[in-house]
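Ticket closed. Logging final result for Metalloprotease PmbA.
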Amino acid sequence: MSEVAISQDASRRELDRLSHLAEDVIRRARAAGASQAEVSASIDTGLSVNVRLGEVETVEHTRDRGFGLTVYFGQRKGSASTADLNADSIQATLEQACAIARYTEEDPASGLADASRMATQFPDLDLWHPWIIDTADAIALGQDIEDAGRAHAGITNSEGAGVQMGESVSVYANSHGFVGRERGTRHSLSLSLIAGDEAGMQRDYWYDSVRSAQDFMSAKALGNKAAERTLARVGARRLSTRQCPVMFSPEIARGLIGHLIGAVSGGALYRRASFLVDHAGKQIMPSWLNIVERPYLMRGQGSGAFDAEGVATRDSALIENGVLARYVLGSYSARKLGIESTGNAGGIHNMVVEPGHADGGQADDFHGMLKRLGTGLLVTEVMGQGVNTITGDYSRGAAGFWVENGQIAYPVEEITIAANLRDMFAGIQAVGADVDKRSHLLTGSILLGQMTIAGE
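Final structure:
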């Protein structure tokens, strides 16, 4: 058995212990004069192995504890945290949080989320799948992945294969009487390879991320995928500067959706630091396009019955027929804006971009999306931080493939793609059915009508 895995029964005992601790600290905070209090407590356990060229590079066992307390004295807030769950550390954390709150300024937007919004139902979302793997087997699996990739002719080196197992149990509780318990597992496999010819070296990778190890692609399939992606980049060229259609592969397309979420999230909005301020109810995408948050997907990477404040999550449209249906808010930002929390304190829960296109009918798979692109750029990698949420300006280094008549013609590199997010969102022509399920942002390829390519 793994040296670090938490058993089914042990996970429940840990949740019981964290729940009792959280409730006790909240009672003590109230006794110390706090009008409200909230606690987050967690235990994370993991195994991480990295191998390179058949040899073990690193083996890491982790068991991390976290405890955070926030108290409110009226509308004055104090927070403190510790990585130690012993009684003395918890008491010191409580005293520190109370001391901070007594000296901070009042903030009219501070306080717990509304009691009426607390979650009351906690369905089993199939998120707990401990992976019983010991260190020796994890090393052997990493070696099998790397061997499969290195077996391809043209692969000249390896940056290594990784095998990670992770388990987390956590509790959020507050003085409304809410106690929310969660447990989940996340496991991953990865491989990065190098190929080269007289023109230079190319690197690429692949990975898989799952809740249950039973859902992993095979070691051979992952190694083959990483090798095929790396070899496909050999002989990459630069493009001349031009304007053309651009298609983002699924793993890159989810970054585009991430920029949308950042622009409609509370902090950017109440600071008026977003190009989508005051855009709720307005058309920002094509009328056929829908994006829906689905917190209750079984084994979903972002599934959960409540947010970081205990507010119940629910299925809810973000984009409905191209219209921005709502913002992404916790209770603090909602109060700053004078509206209600959307149950997104701490982030989103499985944002699903529904596949489709303006023509209606069945959504395209990856090859169908290439045909729809016709002649243009397929982006498989982006670099740099050139995204300005305030203005919407988008300019990033990129690499990928030039596509002609729906077929990949040759790899490209050392280019910059540029546009404004406002135009990019409005100019989406299709979303593919080739959904990347390794994230809480679930989207297929996204085809944009036009971007500027800066190259030679």
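The chain is about 25% helix and 35% strand. No further action required.
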